[in-house]
Amino acid sequence: MESICLKGSRWLTSDACSEFRMAYCVYRASLNSLAQWAIEKNLVRYHVRPKCHQLGHLTWHYLPRNPRYMQCYADEDFISRTKRVAERSRPVHMSRLTMFR
């Protein structure tokens, strides 16, 4: 799925969308097979299974748009920058000074 996104432009072709969907289904089937094998062997070490919720939304609701071009990760950067500003402010005035800066 990653290589399809890297090779594609802003909008994926219908062939690329089909390949992306197939890769997602293979990925999920592999996870299910591994989980079933672990249950049968009593090797379950984790309390939860990976659900890959975001990948499902990308596959079934977001295509043909390329997630590499359309997703915005700037909010994560903004959170870290805001945190650094807040850490430098005095606790009494932190909210006001953070917003001001």
Structure description:
The structure is a single chain. It is flat and about 55 Å long. The protein has helices spanning 2-7, 14-40, 53-62, 67-70, 74-88, 94-100. It is mainly alpha-helical and 101 residues long. The chain is 68% helix and 0% strand. It is built from 6 helices and no strands. Helix 2 (14-40) runs antiparallel to helix 3 (53-62). The chain folds into 2 domains: 2-70; 72-101, no CATH class. The longest helix has 27 residues, at 14-40.
What is the gist of this entry?
It is built from six helices and no strands. The chain has 101 residues and is mainly α.
Largest sheet: none
Tell how many strands the DSSP assignment holds.
0
Outline: flat
Unreliable parts? none
Mean pLDDT: 85
Order of helices and strands: HHHHHH
Number of individual domains: 2
Name the structural class.
mainly alpha
Q: What fraction of the residues are assigned to beta strands by DSSP?
A: under 5%
Query: What separation lies between the terminal Cα atoms?
Result: 40 Å
The total of helices stands at: 6
For the CA atoms, what is the radius of gyration? 21 Å
The helix content is 55-70%
Please render the helix and strand layout as text:
Layout: H1 2-7, H2 14-40, H3 53-62, H4 67-70, H5 74-88, H6 94-100
Helix pairs in contact: 2-3, 5-6
What features would you highlight for this structure?
single chain, 101 residues, mainly alpha, 2 domains
